[in-house]
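tool_call: predict_structure(chain=1)
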Amino acid sequence: MVINWLINKKHSIFFQINLFFIFIFFVINLLIIVQFLFDNKTKRIAEEVRYFNAFKIILDSKMKNKTYDEINLLLQGMNLKISDLDSSKLVDLKGKKIEENSPVEIYFIDEKKYAKIIDKPFMKPHFEERIDFFKPTSLIKDRFENKLNFQDFPSPNLNFMHELKKPEEVLSNIILEDLITEKEFKYFWVLVLFIIDILLIWFLIFLRKKLKPLLILKENMIKLSTGDLSISMKANGKDEISQVANEFENAVTQLKQLRESRNLFLRNIMHELKTPITKGRLVTDMYDDCERKYILIRVFQRLEYLLSEFAKIEELTSGKISLKKSDFYAIDLIEQAFDILLLDSNKINLEDNFELFLNVDFELFSIALKNLIDNAITYKTDGKVSIVIEKNMIKIINKGEKLQKDIEDYYKPFNHDYENSNNGLGLGLYISNNIIKIHNLKLDYEYLDGYHNFVIKLN
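tool_result:
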């Protein structure tokens, strides 16, 4: 079910936009998470450098006998300060090293971060080696052994060299408090992710709102293709899509006006022609039986037939025709067409091979059959017209010359290539095709071995 739905929707621009948005949404969120993890590692390295530099500043400042306030002033630019926290509180806590070989340990107390230098000197002092240079070598001692008695000299006082404390001793009780908390770093990335997601969702809503007239336009165009002009497509926007929608609304309004004008014109023509035809029929009936009387009767019958054809065209094209459907035998419909044509059934080869039922409007469908049979009789070049009733189809066959154009061209109104002006108005195939269509049936055509085959197929 889902797969079929996806297959049906894959060409929809809204489906493609939603799919693209979902892809972009997950990609951007994934990139931000990766960037967060990368920045988190980079931040830890930067923290180590910051703490290390801060301890160096403290060491240098201590050597210069600066106060804590002066040192804190220097550390302020690094968002650090010397904490008043007692170092004994850190004894029971387990410190966390930023890196394995890092000289700095991190402690967390009450969501605050503290840094302490571990027992690892910044550099290995070489004081003892330097002190050895003050001792005489054996060569000098041997050389001046008889002249100088080194025992007579007092030993040099080198204790002042040991009065200088080692760096780890100076910094052993110094604890740095970080003024930047972990939450601030995490909240920053959560905020970035939230803002980007909100912007993406807003953009999707904005895009769908702007493209919504396209979806409505598509639905209305489908309605228009079926002849339904009850369409409202007014858009309030000023963008290009809204302008197209409004122009479509204007075009539909003009089509409605044209349809109403045409229908009014046809009704007026039929009304104006019906009166003289009726009068002519009355006058003809007053004539004595003669050839002229029968000629006039045929003329007025032809005019009445043309008026009825115009009425059917008006109903079909206006889309206001109402079908009175019921089940009928196909043979009964064909016999009704014969009656309309005043046709002797002996002139037609009728093959009733199947008891075919059709759910149709009896009057309208008989007219469709009448037009097809009339065309077959009129344009046959030899032999009889054949009508074959089979399962799910009715065939009307006549021998004749091959059509010069595609059959769809002959389904258009007032086509004189197939129905010339001497024999008709070129409306027969047009009316028959439309009547068959509104019954949800199909009229097919094929030319085989010199014969025209019009086939009414049940879907």
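agent: The CA atoms of residues 327 and 359 lie 4 Å apart. Proceeding to next step.
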